[in-house]
Fold these 2 entries.
Entry 1:
Amino acid sequence: MKNLRRRATAIPLVNRNRPRLTLEGARAVLAAAERRALEIHRPMNLAVVDDAGHLLSFSRMDGAKPSSIEIALTKARAAALRRAPTGPPSREGQPDLLLALGLAIARPDQQTPVRGGVPLLVDGEVIGAIGVSAGSEEEDLDVARAGAAALAGV
């Protein structure tokens, strides 16, 4: 019992040095993503969330499809909660059946089989995510990566 108490007290109860995404950081991510969307001439819906999937900032560019608003939000939330990019990984071009099953039974805001959600990393920790929608999956992913790159070197 004495060893158990020592081991328990050696584990910190609070993490005080954890990076967090600020509103200004979220705006910088959105601005970088918007610049890339303009470069490829594709109006997008862009959502930036914190590490728990709560919305920090959103942009619906002029001409972006209204039907893609919820998709951008879902991609951002899913990437933040999964701590991984959205979309199914594939093995040699074949879909992952276990992932497909997981997507079928998961809550909609936790999973999406569509690419375009990218976690935001600082010092190897997920501090949030960006979700992009209104283009092809490749365009959405490209714009999301451009947004995430705004935090490189921070």
Entry 2:
Amino acid sequence: MDKDVAAGRPAALYVEELWKSQAEALRLSLLAGQGGFRRSIPVADINRPGLTLAGFFEFYRGERMQVFGMGESAFTATLSSAQRMEIFDRLLSTPDLPCVILTHGREPVSEMVEQCERYQVPLFQSQWETARFIGELTAYLEERLAPSTSMHGTLVNVYGMGVLILGASGIGKSECALELLKRSHMLVADDRVEVRHKPGGILVGSGHQLVQHHMEVRGLGIIDVWKIFGVGAVLKRSLVELVVYLEAWDQKKEYDRLGLEDKTTTLLGVAVPEIRVPVQPGRNLGALIEVATLNQRLKQHGVHSARELNERLIQRMSGHTGRARS
């Protein structure tokens, strides 16, 4: 591709959405501060107050959700009522603070409830133990807040590798995916592909929930891949590890015939291997993508067939040149 696909900003996440969508999964109960449901959750990081409860606010991350585990709850119980009022006044008065959550089903001290109501900071209680709760919450937040973009293309999983097929409208992306389905590979999304950038430079693609496992094929119309090919022919999501760009064959254009140089395209700031495949009648695109996928797997394991052949040719020519000079 000729240009970077920039990251799209996810819609703002408010505490109200977290409560409505994850209350059951995270075993949440609302204790106070419902008036602060429109507070924003800007990052997926979680903060445990720790030393902040002892009055050390220098590195306090007030823009994060605050989780009180067994340690924080136990320490809070050792403080006097006046000390708790002072600490919670400083901790909860941060304007960007999203909410506070108590784990292990612990009951809050009265001063916490009072100050949460005063500053309208939502206060929740979860029955999960701290480690499990933070793990589940972080997974949800990373998915919900991940940079994303929507692309016109088809995403298939070939030999366990996510292949994003791109190209102009009508070039044959869906027909190519259909050929791969006949070869026992899997469809992830057709027409519109939602790509998310996960931590660690990982790209994950999926389809829209309403049209999942459906394809539009010109001349056939809408087909249900699940019902035609079976449940094993569809995936809800897949990594995006290879981009195949289909383009109309141009007789005047010089296409790469050796593959010595690895080309990449940038999606959401992540460089992804890319190959361009010229399309003309008689070319079996499904077979070409299968081979391209296997070849990319070899490259991931340090085997570059084109370069190895080139090196052998250079060595052979060097040997012949040496003998000729002697």
